Amino acid sequence: MKIFKNRGDIYIPKSDYKSSGETRFLRITLVLIVLFTAAFVVILSRQYSSAKDFFGRGEVSVTQETVTNVALPEIEGKTNFLIFETDTEQTVIHYIYLFQADRDNKAYKVCTLSPDTVIDNNSIYDIYSSGGGASLQTKLTEYLGIQIDYYAAFDSTSFSDFCSKLGTFVYPNDEELKYSTDLEEDNYTIHLRKGDQTLDSQTFSNLLRYYSNQEKNYNKANNAVLYAFTSLINEENYEDAEALFRLFVKSSSTNITVRNFENGRDGLIVFSKLGSKVPVYSTQIEYEGNTLTQNSVENIKGYFNK
C-alpha cells in the first residue's frame, strides 16, 4: 500500500493486524539498536578514556608538541652570575651566592657562600670594599677556577624595592623560624611558621641573611633562592621584562648591559615559559673556619664549569 499518495495525505493502515505487526517490528528494531549501542560503548570504554581521546587519539599531543617546539627558541650555553646584598651603608655583606642559568640543560644551579668567606687571607668584604663588585667577581673567578660572567650588588633597600616588583612566591618552610638581631643598626627579624609560606622581597632577604649568618645552613639558602627563581621567572613577569630590567640596573651595581639583556632574550623566554618546571641543582659546601674546604671548591667547579 502506498503510504502517501500526495504531500499532506494521511496514512491509514489496511487492518489492525498489519498495524500491530509493524509496531512489533519497530519495537524489536529499537531493542536491537539499544543493545548494539551499549555493546559499542563498552568496547570503546576499554580502549579510550574519553570522547576527546577517541576523536583525537594520536593527533592532539603531537599538535601541542609541535606548537610548543615552535614557541620555544633553541638555546645553548651557560652563564654564571655573582649576586649579593649589603647593608644600606655598604659596610657588611648580608649574603652572597653564585647562580648559573644552564641553557644547555635548561636548568638552574645555585651555591650560597658564607659572607665571612676568606680568600688568600682577605675576607670577601675586604675585596669588595677595595674594588667593588668587579674586583670580587675577578677574585672568585680565580679562586674557584670558574668563569663568573656577571655580578649584581644590591643594598638591602634597593633589593627590596626591585624584588617587590617581581611579586611573592610560596616557600615550603620545614621548621618554625623566629629570630631577631640585637644590633643598634642594620636590624632584621625573621618569623616564619612551618609549612607553605608566602614570601615577599623583605622576608626573602631576611631568610637568606638568617641561613647565611645565624644558622649557616647554605643548602637551605640555596633552596630558598631556587624557589624564588623558579617562581618569579615566569611568563607574567616576562611580559614586563624591559621595565623590570631598567629597574634592575637602577637598583643594583652591575656589569650587565642592555646588550647583554637583549642577547639573553631567547634564554629568558624559555626559562619564563618553563617556570617551576625548570630542573634545579644545589651545591653542597663546607668550611674549615672561614675557608672553603678543597672538596667544596671542587664541587663548585664541577657544577659551575662551562
Task: Explain how this protein is built.
The termini are far apart. The strands form five sheets. This protein has a six-stranded mixed sheet, with helices on both faces. The protein has twelve helices and 14 strands. The protein has 306 residues and is an alpha+beta fold. Helix content is 49%, strand content 21%.
Distance between the termini: 91 Å
Outline type: globular
The tally of strands reads 14
SSE order: HHHEEEEEHEHEEEEHHHHEHHEEEH
Unreliable residue stretches: 1-19, 39-68
Helical content band = 40-55%
Helix/strand structural class: alpha+beta
What is the tally of helical segments? Answer: 12
Task: Indicate the proportion of strand residues.
Answer: 15-25%
How would you write the strand order of the largest sheet?
11-6-1-2-3-12
Q: Taking all residues together, what is the mean pLDDT?
A: 84
Q: Outline the biggest β-sheet.
A: 6 strands, mixed
- Oligomer designation: single chain
Rg calculated over all Cα atoms:
33 Å
